[in-house]
UniProtKB/TrEMBL annotation:
Residues 227-383 form the Helicase C-terminal domain. PROSITE patterns: DEAD_ATP_HELICASE, HELICASE_ATP_BIND_1, HELICASE_CTER, Q_MOTIF. It holds the Pfam family Helicase_C. This is DEAD/DEAH box helicase domain protein. One of its GO terms (cellular component) is cytosol. Keywords: ATP-binding, Helicase, Hydrolase, Nucleotide-binding. Residues 1-29 form the DEAD-box RNA helicase Q domain. Belongs to the DEAD box helicase family. Gene3D superfamilies: P-loop containing nucleotide triphosphate hydrolases. It comes from Ferrimonas balearica (strain DSM 9799 / CCM 4581 / KCTC 23876 / PAT). CDD domains: DEADc, SF2_C_DEAD. The lineage of its organism: Bacteria, Pseudomonadati, Pseudomonadota, Gammaproteobacteria, Alteromonadales. Residues 32-207 form the Helicase ATP-binding domain. A motif (Q motif) lies at residues 1-29. SMART domains: DEXDc (SM00487), HELICc (SM00490).
Length: 426
């Protein structure tokens, strides 16, 4: 099905051709006709399926059909995103879609000075893409008004709930005075989002592509069992020996990211870092260099798990398995996009075995385990069988991400010790 068949104006069709878009993806085929009719939408789809176009294009076409003069500090269309990286990416896409239309768009997120964002909003914008926290700050300082919002989109809504933005979302919603269309797009559909959908949506149309929490069929999964203190060594070995040229590595702790990047750089693998303690400019620069191939490896915390669109990314590595099994789906969603093949590699320590089983249950498949010669883990088979066979272990909840967790502190200590041991061997 083509975009032209949806009755988009020539300027939008021209922009899509400029972007290289040809056929609509499944989520676009299902969501766009409903959104064009003005329905509220609750959409569930895997990452990398074209959700941005599914909500942005109907919004733009509606603005074309119902032109309005911009008002000072007012917004017509509001798109909320959980992270800076996703907000910037969505804003870039929106700007491409309206490049031949007389519309303006802006992006607002934390980590950068507010003054430049306020200047963009001074004359009013047609579409604003923002993170909830920064939008709240702008609202409190009377730098933006939501009184004229006609379209509200929550992108990666479940992630916003996980990050504790529920209060901000409710306060933002309360500032919207006009009847408006609301669309929620998400990769997963946990119970908390059902509650949020009931609050925000009016008679929504449900849209789903693929089974919930399933990963793309284009991704090959593999677990490498390895003792915790040898993970760094194995990671370097895999990247070097298998000649992986573009690798996104996920960790749970910022300290892990810095130590791993230092070690990989010492091994001659050009590596950058992306986590919350790095400035926004530093993070954007690392992502840019990674996309351009100037960095072979990017080590990131979950701040980079959502929304990153790295064209043709072949390898995602979980150095640490995520605290929640659902985040495995988000992390590996960076590879295997747009029909291309991808590889999801996880280094599984003894403490990770329960999470590994929960991940397999969540995605509905057993993941192949490969023991790398020289890195065989100790005393593993009995533990795996126990987790798979006994409901008391199998059905336990995953770990929680608490800075005070003793297990997290112990893992960081072992990591630092492993790095020091390797450096002494040089």
């Amino acid at each position: 099905m083509s975009f032209a068949s949806q009755g988009f104006c020539p300027e939008i069709v021209q922009a899509l051709e400029q972007c290289g878009y040809q056929k609509m993806t499944p989520i676009q085929q299902k969501a766009i006709p409903l959104a064009r009719k003005g329905h509220d939408i609750l959409a569930n789809a895997q990452t990398g399926t074209g959700k941005t176009a599914a909500f942005a294009l109907p919004m733009l076409q509606s603005m074309v059909d119902k032109p309005q003069q911009r008002s000072r500090r007012h917004v017509r269309g509001l798109i909320l995103a959980p992270t800076r990286e996703l907000a910037q990416q969505v804003a870039d896409n929106v700007a491409q879609y309206h490049q031949f239309l007389p519309f303006t768009s802006a992006v607002a997120y934390g980590g950068v000075k507010m003054a430049s964002q306020a200047r963009q909003l001074e004359a009013g914008v047609d579409i604003l893409v923002a993170t909830p926290g920064r939008l709240q700050e702008l609202m409190e300082m009377n730098m933006v008004s939501l009184a004229q919002v006609e379209y509200l989109v929550l992108d990666e809504a479940d992630r916003m709930l996980d990050m504790g933005f529920i209060g901000d979302i409710q306060r933002i919603r309360d500032q919207i005075k006009l009847p408006h269309q609301t669309m929620l797009f998400s990769a997963t559909y946990p119970p908390k989002m059902k509650q949020l959908a009931a609050e925000l949506l009016k008679k929504p149309k449900m849209v789903s592509v693929g089974e919930e929490n399933r990963t793309a069929e284009t991704v090959a999964h593999v677990f490498y069992p390895v003792d915790e203190d040898r993970k760094i060594e194995l990671l370097s070995e895999l990247i070097g020996r298998k000649n992986w040229q573009q690798v996104l590595v996920f960790v749970n702790y910022k300290e892990h990211a810095d130590a791993i990047a230092e070690e990989l750089n010492n091994d001659g693998l050009t590596t950058g870092v992306c986590h919350g303690d790095r400035s926004q400019g530093n993070r954007r620069r690392a992502l840019k260099e990674f996309k351009e191939g100037k960095l072979r490896v990017l080590v990131a915390t979950d701040v980079a798990a959502r929304g990153l669109d790295i064209q043709g990314l072949p390898h995602v590595v979980n150095y640490d398995l995520p605290f929640l099994a659902e985040d495995y789906v988000h992390r590996i969603g960076r590879t295997g996009r747009a029909g291309l093949q991808g590889h999801a590699v996880s280094l599984v320590g003894r403490e990770d075995e329960l999470t590994a089983v929960q991940i397999e249950r969540l995605i509905g498949q057993r993941i192949r385990r490969v023991e790398q010669p020289g890195y065989e883990a100790r005393n593993r088979d009995a533990l795996v069988d126990k987790f798979n066979s006994k409901a008391a272990f199998r059905d336990r909840k995953g770990r929680t991400n608490r800075a005070s967790d003793q297990s997290g502190a112990e893992r960081q200590l072992r990591l630092r010790q492993a790095v020091k041991a390797r450096l002494k061997q040089r």
